[in-house]
Task: structure prediction
Amino acid sequence: MNKRFAAAAAAIGGFALTLTACGGGTGAGTAGGGSASSGAAEKVTSIKLVAAEYSKENTAAFWTKFAEAYKAKTGITLEVQVVSWNDIDQQSSTMVQNNNPPDILNLNVYASYAKDDLLWSADDVLSDAVKSDLLPNFVKSGTYEGKMYGMPDLSSARALFYNKDLFAKAGIAAPPKTWDEFVTDAKKISALGDGTVGYAMPLGPEEAQAEYSIWMFNNGGDWKTDGKWSINSPQNVETLKFLKDLSVTQKVTQNNPGKTNRTDGAFALFQSGKAGMVVGFSPLAATLDKDGKVSYGTAAMPTKDGGEPSTYGVTDYLMAFKKPGNQEAVKAFYDLYYSPDQVNTFIKNEGFLPVTQSGLEVFASDTKLTTYLDTLTGAKLTPTDDPGWDRVKLAVQQSIGAAVAPDGDPQAVLDSLQKQAESGS
Result:
């Protein structure tokens, strides 16, 4: 997700197309787009969208057609720039710092921009029909200080993927419902030998916060409690110790899970048929279906004591920067995007999940999505409504993997992250 390594300025002029998943970003500087009152200025004839690339095959193609439909409907030109998730953090931050933000930005963080009063709120640019159709948990995640600024474009939810053939060989009848059952099953699969591991665990920097979150949520923990950071709570320390134990003591994971990334590490291992279980999402299912090499099932996550399972949800946002005269053009953009033939087409093409109630009804006909859809409305998200989350997330990605190394100290790692979150540095 959150990559900050590419140079920003040189690539801003065109498309940068590289496949990955939901991305990250950070707000900084000020944009000279004005305040809400600037919407009364002379109307614009064009607006710009900077969109993250979800896939080479679909993202640019969708937005190109969308721009044509937008032009036909409004007479306004929509300039489209599609940027790799590897680069969009730095490029979008540079645009804002240079006082040249796009009108619409597709990213998975927004609160730092909202804090700086750079964004239109939903009250300014969303119709009542769209507001009422959005799923409540995504409205909540997009809300900063009582107003919604992060308009969800698509979502995903995680589930436990398991290899049916390996389960059968190991004599496992059903996916685990408790952590004890999970360990027992993972041991049986690892005992099959031939390089097979019970669980592929990615705590490398690509998406460590997601892997840790879903286990944390299923032990009653969270990143924040009652509005305050609770990263080093007893439940969270217990969770991280459990994950370390899977690798160091139980030895049911691949080598070096703290340095293993999701896409080219854990997912690749599962796709090769060498992992019994992995936490995945619908795009992984699409890849597995296309390959046709692994017979797999999906299930809810096991919980520590067998209680009601939670899932980890993700949504990205289409946020709108306040710029002179662009309010009505932005409203028209959202009206068109959230029309069912647009938003659902985009989500289906990219292999993700809906963000609207009407979308849930449309996607319900796909039985392969049942595991995700059943938990989507109750999915727990990371605290993207906190302006400090992006900074905390980066620290988590860089450091939490060290806790599951043989000499790792889960308590010390989480204590350090707690201090960083509380200090704002």
Q: What stands out?
A: Residues 1-40 have pLDDT under 50 and may be disordered.
